[in-house]
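User:
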Amino acid sequence: HPARELLYHYRSRHEDLIRFSNTEFYHNLMIPVTAHTNQPNRGIKHIFLEDARYVSGTAAGPGGINPMEAKRVVEEVLKIMEERPHESIGVATMNIKQKDLIESEFQLQKSRNIHALKYEAYWQDKDEGLHEFFIKNLENVQGDERDTIVISTLYGPVKRDDGSRDGMNQRFGDINKAAGWRRLNVLFTRAKNQIILVTSMLPGDIQEEGKKRGVGVLKKYIAF
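Assistant: Predicted structure:
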């Protein structure tokens, strides 16, 4: 059989959710479904945390964390759980340590938040839990789709004693592996209604020279 091209993106309910991948990966083959572009809480919400800092891993445990991003991600999640309880949510970040940090922050906040408790119970029950709330790292976000995906990009200026903004770590973990760009494409196309991108990076912070394609893709996506 001749190869079939995918001509439209069945998941996206706002063209911005597929526009980047459409240009970067599919060479403008996909025609997104754009029936509701003027509705609120659709498309991409970009949150730049100027004061957030990446805390590098130690020899004892590689992989860093970004505490301020983790807190903001949980804030955004709790807000949706209260205001839009019938929309499904997933959270994704770039490594296991940040995933664990977001998870522990969420558990802490959830224990005293009736909306979050009701939300989790509702989605665990609905469709036998098919679209229940999740927090995952990049490697584990594959077949999932949710109405809203909240992303913590994790990396950013390293924490300095004086709090100054410089010296960004350029390692980029799984993104700087051969298949990193594919993982990012999967991540950027998981949402039906909205992506909330929580980041501490400006495009100019990212040096893509000598790096795998994924690092350049992340830089372009933040610029986009």
